[in-house]
Amino acid sequence: MNIAHITPVYPPYTGGIGSVAHEYALALARDNHDVTVFTPKYQELNDSHNEIEVKRLKPVYKWGNAALIPQLLWELREFDILHLHYTFYGASLFTALAALIWRKPLIITYHMKPIASGWLGWIFRIYRLLVEPFVFWSAKVVCASSLDYAQSVGLRPKKLVELPFSVDAERFTPKEALDIREELAISRDSKAIIFVGGLDDAHYFKGVDVLIEACAKLADDIDWDLIIVGDGNKKVQYQELAVQRRVVNKIHFVGRLSNDDLPRYYQAADVHVLPAINRCEAFGLVTLEAAASGLPSVVSNLPGVRTLVKERETGLVVPPSDVGALILALTFMLQKDELRYRFGKAARERVERRFAPGVIYKELREVYRSVVG
Questions:
Q1: Is residue 216 part of a domain?
Q2: Together in a domain, 152 and 82
Q3: Count of CB atoms within 10 A of residue 77's CB?
Q4: 3-class secondary-structure state, position 263
Q5: How far apart are CA 241 and CA 227, in angstroms?
Q6: Is residue 89 a part of any domain in this protein?
């Protein structure tokens, strides 16, 4: 089949939506389908995806990662299936119209519900009131990473399918990366916490400031280090907070990592944390990456996010934005060596059983077969 994926971001830009789109496209291409990815052309990039054609379309208008690309209405005319990664406000209406005009089945993967205040919040509300119902009505299937999250945002299309995202359990594996700890000057006795995520305005909801505040208030008898993986325009703000809280020597801002390096940084850590503050975080691929690496996680009690951690089996779940609760959870995880190892082992086993690429791709393939049939 000739399949189009429409996504607001795509590698080498980092982010969960683009990573999922790339994973799906790559799996379909290896299953002998012709795949083309449509994404906005935010900047000049060198694409090196030999198995996938990537068309970066120049936006009529762009703001941050939002881009208006009406040319999709014509570009999508010759495909067998259209697969939209939502939320992509600047493309969803044109994709839905293309599906109707050219009589193509439309699949939507619902990634998240954006939250904003002020005039941007009003734009989101108007869009959800006037345009979103038509987009979902046009879709044959809407996939959500968890029914938990779908129910929390009132997602009720005519055909809703739970399709979690997957993680490469061969790329992310449990090992020791003592060279990374040595490079960062983390002692053998210190317990390393790792956070992975964007440090820009688009990812304000990741809760990095909450994590720094909690780490700064850990008891003096706990030897800890925090590894922050990611980059963006808020990085300086977080670094300044670390200086203000007098923990700048304990926090390692390592920037954006390559695909080869990222697994080794998980392997250098003892526990993973995703302290997201609101429902803009709908899943958390990083939690699966950590679990595949044999790490337990501490995550926020948010729809979708909490489904990736089994409480007191693979990690702990805490209220969002609650510094005190995060301190208690981190203290518990960092002081209980045997329990932390058991949680990490169980997390790895759960990934192999439920979130391996082969498992998820079988479910994705059934979705495709359902709309073609």
A1: yes
A2: yes
A3: 12
A4: helix
A5: 15
A6: yes
Q: Which amino acid is at 86?
A: Y
* Residues whose CB falls within 8 Å of the CB of residue 347, separated by 6 or more in sequence, listed in order: 290, 291, 292, 294, 295, 296, 297, 309, 314, 315
CA distances from 50 to 30, 53, 168 (A): 11, 7, 20
**Alpha helical stretches, state H, the chain:** 16-30, 72-75, 89-101, 118-130, 132-138, 147-152, 178-183, 208-216, 235-244, 262-267, 285-292, 323-335, 337-350, 357-372
Residue 96 carries which side chain, given as an amino acid letter? A
**What SS3 class is residue 267?**
helix
Residues 116 and 245 in one domain: no
Residues 112 and 210 occupy one common structural domain: no
Cα 362 to chain centroid distance, Å, stands at 21
The total number of structural domains that make up the chain: 2
The range of the structural domain enclosing residue 215 comes to 178-355
pLDDT digit string, tens, across residues 241-291: 999 999 999 999 999 999 899 999 999 999 999 999 998 898 999 999 999
Q: 318: closest CA among 298, 334, 335?
A: 298
pTM for this one?
Answer: 0.84
Distance in angstroms between the alpha carbons of the first and the last residue of the chain: 13
3-state class of 299 per DSSP? strand
pLDDT in tens, 221-239: 999 999 999 999 999 999 9
Q: Is residue 225 part of a domain?
A: yes
Please give the biggest Cα pair distance in the chain: 66
